[in-house]
Specification:
The protein is of the alpha/beta class and 273 residues long. The chain contains 10 helices and 10 strands.
Length: 273
C-alpha cells in the first residue's frame, strides 16, 4: 500500500535535512518533493517519512542515497537540440564579439549540459577563450561530471541530438571510448570547473556572459524561483544571456523586468541594461 505523506511530515523532514546536512530543500515545490519522497520510501525500504527522517539523522550513509532522489538526474548531451540550434544561430554570434567568455551552468547534474556547451563553443572557435562554471548541490553528480564518463549505450542518442543541434562535424571528435564507456576529451574538461553551489543559500561568484539553468526552476516554489533569477541577474553582465527550460518562465517573477525575451522560439532571455 502506498504510504500517506502529509505536508507537515515533508516540512519536518526538509527542516531536519537543512539542520543536519545544510542542504536546503525547504522552498522546493511541495508536490514535486512529495513525488520524489514516495520513490525514496520505496527505494530505501522505509514505511514512513518519520522512519526515513530517523535513518538520515542517525546514519550519515543514508543521506547520499536520499539526495539522489531529491535531485533530478535526467539529462542528455544536447538535450532539447532545438534549443542548442537556436543558441548557435542567435547567441553564439554575439558571444563571439567578447574577448573572453564566462558561462555558468547552474544545476549541471552529471555534466552533459556543460559538455554540450563546450563542444558547441569548440566548434565555433570560442572554447579556448571560455571558462565554464558548472554547479550543482549533489557531490556524487559533480564527481561523475568531472570524470566525464558516460555509458556507451547512450551514445546513439547523443549523436542524434548533436546532429539536430547543428553540429558541424563528428561528435566522436570530442570523446574516446573503451569497452563500455565514452570519456569526454581533455580539451573540453580543462575549460570546465565543476563546483558545489546552492541556488537556495549561496551567492554569486563571478560575472558571466551567459547563465544556463534549464529544468531546475520548475522544482522551486515562487519565492525560491525569484531568488534564483535574482542571482542570475546579478551574475550576468549587461545584456548577458539567460537560458531556461521549455516549461519555465519569468513572466510572473518579481525579477521579470530585469530580462527581455530574445524571441527565438526558445526560453532565451537577455538582461536589461
Amino acid at each position: 500500500m502506498r504510504p500517506e505523506v502529509t505536508d507537515l511530515e515533508i516540512r519536518l523532514l526538509l527542516e531536519a535535512i537543512y539542520q543536519r546536512y545544510h542542504y536546503d530543500f525547504r522552498q522546493y515545490a511541495i508536490a514535486s518533493v512529495r513525488r520524489r519522497l514516495l520513490q525514496a520510501l520505496s527505494g530505501l525500504q522505509c514505511d514512513s517519512i518519520s522512519g526515513l527522517q530517523e535513518r538520515i539523522l542517525h546514519d550519515k550513509h543514508v543521506f547520499p542515497q536520499l539526495l539522489a532522489y531529491l535531485t533530478i538526474q535526467v539529462t542528455d548531451l544536447f538535450r532539447d537540440p532545438e534549443f542548442f540550434l537556436a543558441l548557435r544561430q542567435h547567441v553564439v554570434p554575439i558571444l563571439a564579439t567578447y574577448p573572453s567568455l564566462k558561462l555558468w551552468i547552474a544545476g549541471c547534474s552529471t555534466g552533459e549540459e556543460a559538455y554540450s556547451y563546450a563542444i558547441m563553443l569548440a566548434e565555433e572557435g570560442l572554447l579556448e577563450r571560455t571558462l565554464i562554471y558548472a554547479t550543482d548541490i549533489n557531490d556524487d553528480s559533480l564527481r561523475r561530471a568531472q570524470a566525464g564518463v558516460y555509458s556507451l549505450d547512450r551514445l546513439q542518442q547523443f549523436i542524434l541530438n548533436y546532429r539536430a543541434a547543428g553540429g558541424r562535424g563528428s561528435l566522436n571528435d570530442f570523446y574516446h571510448t573503451d569497452a563500455v564507456h565514452a570519456v569526454m576529451a581533455p580539451q573540453l574538461r580543462r575549460r570546465i570547473t565543476f563546483a558545489d553551489h546552492s541556488l537556495a543559500t549561496d551567492s554569486i561568484f563571478s560575472e558571466v556572459q551567459l547563465v544556463s539553468c534549464r529544468n531546475v526552476l520548475i522544482y522551486f516554489d515562487r519565492e525560491l524561483q525569484d531568488r534564483a533569477l535574482g542571482l542570475f541577474a546579478e551574475a550576468l553582465c549587461p545584456r548577458g544571456f539567460l537560458c531556461l527550460g521549455t516549461k519555465e518562465s519569468i513572466r510572473f517573477s518579481s525579477e521579470a523586468t530585469r530580462f527581455c525575451d530574445m524571441s527565438t522560439g526558445q526560453k532565451i532571455f537577455r538582461r536589461v541594461d
